[in-house]
Amino acid sequence: MIQKYRFGTPIETCAVIKELPVTEEKLPFFEISSKKENTEFVYKMADKDIVYGLGEQVRGINKRGWIYKSCNADDPHHQEDTKSLYGSHNFLLLSGEELFGVFFDYAGTVTYDVGYTHRDTLRITPEDWNLDVYVITGECEKDIVKQFRKLIGRSYIAPMWAFGYGQSRWGYKDAKDIRKVAAEYRKRNIPLDSIYMDIDYMERYKDFTIDEDAFPEFETFCAEMKEQGIHLVPIIDAGVKIEEGYDVYEEGVKNDYFCKDAKGKDFVGAVWPGRVYFPDFLKPETRTWFGEKYAFLLEKGVDGFWNDMNEPAIFYTEERLASVMERISELSKENLDVDSYFEFTGLVAGIGNNVGDYDTFFHEIDGKKVSHSKVHNLYGYNMTKAAGEAFEKLSPEKRILMFSRSSYIGAHRYGGIWQGDNKSWWSHLLMNLQMMPSLNMAGFLYTGADVGGFGSDTMEDLMLRWLQLAVFTPLMRNHSSRGTREQELYRFDNCDTCKKMIEIRYGLIPYLYSEYMKAVLSDEMMFRPLAFDFPKDAAARGVEDQLLLGNELMIAPVYTQNSTGRYVYLPEEMMLVRMRSLSDYETQVLVAGHHYVKAELDELVFFIRKDKAIPIGATAINTERLDAGTLKLFGYAGATYDLYEDDGYTKAYDLDSCIREIV
Amino acid sequence: MIQKYRFGTPIETCAVIKELPVTEEKLPFFEISSKKENTEFVYKMADKDIVYGLGEQVRGINKRGWIYKSCNADDPHHQEDTKSLYGSHNFLLLSGEELFGVFFDYAGTVTYDVGYTHRDTLRITPEDWNLDVYVITGECEKDIVKQFRKLIGRSYIAPMWAFGYGQSRWGYKDAKDIRKVAAEYRKRNIPLDSIYMDIDYMERYKDFTIDEDAFPEFETFCAEMKEQGIHLVPIIDAGVKIEEGYDVYEEGVKNDYFCKDAKGKDFVGAVWPGRVYFPDFLKPETRTWFGEKYAFLLEKGVDGFWNDMNEPAIFYTEERLASVMERISELSKENLDVDSYFEFTGLVAGIGNNVGDYDTFFHEIDGKKVSHSKVHNLYGYNMTKAAGEAFEKLSPEKRILMFSRSSYIGAHRYGGIWQGDNKSWWSHLLMNLQMMPSLNMAGFLYTGADVGGFGSDTMEDLMLRWLQLAVFTPLMRNHSSRGTREQELYRFDNCDTCKKMIEIRYGLIPYLYSEYMKAVLSDEMMFRPLAFDFPKDAAARGVEDQLLLGNELMIAPVYTQNSTGRYVYLPEEMMLVRMRSLSDYETQVLVAGHHYVKAELDELVFFIRKDKAIPIGATAINTERLDAGTLKLFGYAGATYDLYEDDGYTKAYDLDSCIREIV
Fold this sequence. Notes:
Number of helices of chain A: 15
Helix content of chain A: 10-25%
Shape of chain A: globular
Mean pLDDT of chain A: 97
Distance between the termini of chain A: 38 Å
Strand order of the largest sheet of chain A: 26-25-23-19-14-13-12-28-27
Radius of gyration of chain A: 24 Å
CATH topology of the domain at 2-152 in chain A: Immunoglobulin-like
Low-confidence stretches of chain A: none
Largest sheet of chain A: 9 strands, parallel
Largest interface: A-B, 67 and 67 residues
CATH architecture of the domain at 2-152 in chain A: Sandwich
Oligomer: homodimer
CATH superfamily of the domain at 2-152 in chain A: glycosyl hydrolase (family 31)
Strand content of chain A: 25-35%
């Protein structure tokens, strides 16, 4: 059951698709506690209560023990004490003495003290008191999530090719570089479906332009790649370069599509192109206009995009830069003592992505001027909505790949997300796993992290272990930053093992796609904590580094360096699979309980649940070449599998008609 | 066997105390490979080889899979891709196909590519080719370490009271604050031996001064604390404030004790006091002079110190600050585009601790001018040596507590080290454990990390779990930074459980001190990887989160949040101890192999090795009150223990005469 509670006059977020009546009853579970500074929702937690949810956040599956903040942030250096990442997903699921879900539908900043200040106290503080709260009760964790997912509407569906392996790097500066990447993969017969184009492809970082010197005859280049079975997936950034004669800029200014400053002038920030205006994506007419701009690339043969820098990331605002420069000029005349030195370095470190700037620019909502700080978390969401709504018109038949960095619940209907700029850290490999279920709860099913890590220098063993997780995630993209070690798979001594992992991925795609589509079309989770299926199992409730995948698998990747195995908890009997390639593997049935499982660097380990089987097919050079005729059941003898199968490209998806039993 | 190889004309480090002849034979194990840019030592590693060592560094006990750099760095934000920490300890131990230790005795920067670029290649690159290399072969890992430790000389011995619990925070601004801390501990009967005094106690951060307003009649205050059984332990920083009339400054200038700039003038850097000169600790006369300054505090009743900021940390050099300011002034006239924006923020971020500055100041060694960059890693070491040598004269009978942030091998003879400024991160709790054996190899036995974490905000459960590791480390200091959550134990709801952990510590001190003294006096390791005692056990060789402690214990603390247990590998039968207080515990004999062991937040878990027992005594309010009469054997029935016992205060330590058997 879902009950809706309203406080004050909320700003509409469109996160929810069902119009529920507002109940006048007292909010259950929470005390509302008022202090001088703020009003808070307070819940007393029992010792063994688990707090699931919060979507894209650092730390464990169980969020207890830290403070989180819903305030979308561009933070590529995030670590375990980071409070905000790229998306805000205000859904929590309490499991323990009580069992309920709660969604705080609120466009501004919300702080979650999940047993940080006091271990037994959950304290939720929205920045003001205008919000809708949905409380969901149900039979079990899965039931509550399903109710919530139905409330927020069906998740975006990616094309089948987006389940292929993708290669990306900030730094492929021209068509030659990309041709080289394609050739290196094809030469080695490593499966590949897509190459991503980071900001380098644009003319001076202007959205919906192509650098003609670097990418002459882009349409032909696109076709050339398609012929090799490779989709090009360009990036689109939020900021629009201020440049006379640039159509996007000119149209935006003329039609008042941009965010305004306090004086009502177009607000100036700076991102990659230098000074930019930010489209006011909260205005429907801005969305329509910006969305149609994607046609520029669609018409050239592109059928996938990633929206980036849409928290929005702001390198500096004109105003703050000017004031910092002025203060530095004063300080430079003094002999910097320790206080003034830290003031100086602090000022400069605080220029970029300064939350204080969110009060200095404005959106127009229903004709009213609204401070960005009040709707900050909706910005990237509405950029993705602009694209998603446009694709419905521009490509009514064919699915277009779309995923975004920034998001809010609601954005899941228009695109996936990737887990944002991360690092080549072992801890971020584990975080990739831990974030999957919380994102699934929030409706984001097409997701994954930058495999191998975006920032910092990767290692061959980290890449291999990361591939062994990413083999299972819908988005499987190897992405890295300019200035870091190159990490295309052919850069590694052990490229052959990498290749085998990719081949296994392609063998698994029919299953993964099937479970993804079933989860999307049934409003369920593809990745679940063990306790969602074994809620009474105290050991399962504590597991933070294994996940159930679909209805047949459990995954338990190795995420520590120099390990040749790991501990795994089996809540029931399962079949261990240790796979070096699609043709080289062992299986072993293990009893329920704790096990130490060997997993050398070249061994992918996963588990098939009791009496289940999954279809595995032959690999192929890309998803288009996958042959359903090669599918064979793998797992317990006698088990069957209901395969969801559609064309993977059009929108003719349907749960009832697309299932066939494999025996 | 130890062989000494010499390349070029090394700068003397005094790391080694034995004069070995230089052998003319070819260096074994390593290829010397010359490339255009540099010459390197190259070793081909087998797949299962383990690389131990490198002392104070991030990542695992097995260092394979990353690049490390010996270049002492003040990096309080270190994470898994950090290359340098506060100390440089150029000792490695290869265990696998071959078994040998190697020490690169070199005062400059050394880079260790331990299978990062190529998984099978260890590549060591000193910045120039003037160094001594010691190659040590032996029967086993422990034997090689023992030979190395004999080569570098006996480790510093801390007073017994330094095994008590210590409370510290940057931010106790006056005697009142410190009295309050003492009172809060004493009121609750939480054992406490020391309170640390961070930079706040000095008069404008000037070494060997006391802020008379904040600490009037310091000598009396010291006595007052001593009466409560509490030692005050002040910090000493490396930089000397430039201030007319300040005796340390005046004497240093007059006698030429400071480092020089390129023009031969006293070199100006900036640290806490603003502009400072750095004592040239590499000059014996500077050391003598600076060391004697500690008398100022010794005479007031202080008997312990920590040397800090001695990498040295440099907030800015006058030269770099001026050039940055000049460039900013130019940039501020331009419209900052993306390139110039990143230049601007990069310049400012690079002002502090810039390695490039190490070429701009100089030491005098044997009358010759030597660039700081050539001897950078010796700086903190020689500051500690200054103190250690002085204490021999100033306090010939009584042991003085001394530990340092920066170090090099050799410094271990004059003081301990703490593991430097860390964070309130679960990953840093694990790192605390992982660093213990590598520091022990390098001679640092009196060591530990800032319990609860120095930077960032701690959590009650992190503090409890950290205490459960620190219960075993010689240095057990709770320390935190100004601006973070207060973390004295009485700040937590669950203070009583914290107290019980401290009481357990005091019950264990007789054993811990005994094992520490045995390790020091026998040149052995107090903390060892499992594989050092079980070298043939493949599972033991992979364990990264358990340690052997002394000859009787194995520790396996919980280091992940919300866990109520963990997996443990037992290389042999052991007795599990689950202890909630000195009087509330269970024991259980577990067979060799893998186990999942429950450990609730209030439960300290450790293991007693087969047929061993340890003495545990009653707790006391401080170490002075510990009563050897209360000691009882705890562990396997029939086992006995050889207790090392001395007065803990004087230097009358002796392995033969101080052992008594406990039955």
